[in-house]
Design brief:
The protein has 178 residues and is mainly alpha-helical. It is 75% helix and 0% strand.
């Protein structure tokens, strides 16, 4: 359902709630306020995204993919602030299946904008892992440094340290092709 329809529905509910209060139906008016608040909240936080994030935290990728697939046109169904998070979720799900293919989603998420620092750090850390898999140490180092700057609350400090240790091991390994 597009956001325009949600706004129209919430406006009609608000008018109906005001009418209920005007005619003295206080019980139904309070219920109308609660329903109106729920509809207004879904304008800013898409329910499909919220449920998909819940299933991602539970590591149930099939259910998360099912809920994300309900978003058919993200530009109309989501507000602009959620476009980056939509691509971040797609990238996280794709990285479980084929990590190299998820790079485009993480880059698009960073381009569209992520507002929370730890989400930016997560996207850059994932891009660093992809760069390491491609054996591109310079790009991986750049993404790791950017991830460390973005992770102000040190939520991903252990993962960043582990990735740096793996990069140090990359230098020691020499692969000879004959």
């Amino acid at each position: 359902m597009s956001n325009l329809i949600r706004i129209i529905i919430s406006s009609l509910l608000l008018i109906g709630t005001i009418a209920l209060f005007f005619y003295g139906e206080w019980g139904w008016g309070i219920l109308g306020i609660l329903i109106t608040v729920i509809v207004v909240v879904t304008v800013f936080f898409n329910e499909n995204m919220l449920i998909a994030q819940f299933y991602l935290r539970k590591e149930n990728m099939a259910k998360a993919a099912q809920w994300l697939s309900r978003i058919t046109n993200y530009e109309k169904q989501l507000i602009r602030a959620q476009h980056g998070y939509y691509h971040l979720l797609l990238g996280l799900m794709e990285s479980q299946k084929s990590p190299m293919q998820s790079e485009k989603y993480f880059k698009k998420a960073l381009t569209l904008g992520l507002h929370m620092g730890h989400n930016v750090a997560l996207a850059k850390l994932s891009l660093a892992g992809i760069a390491m898999a491609k054996r591109n140490k310079r790009e991986a180092t750049k993404y790791l440094q950017e991830a460390k700057k973005a992770d102000k609350n040190k939520l991903l400090a252990d993962q960043i340290k582990m990735m740096k240790d793996q990069m140090g091991m990359m230098d020691r390994q020499q692969i000879r092709y004959r």
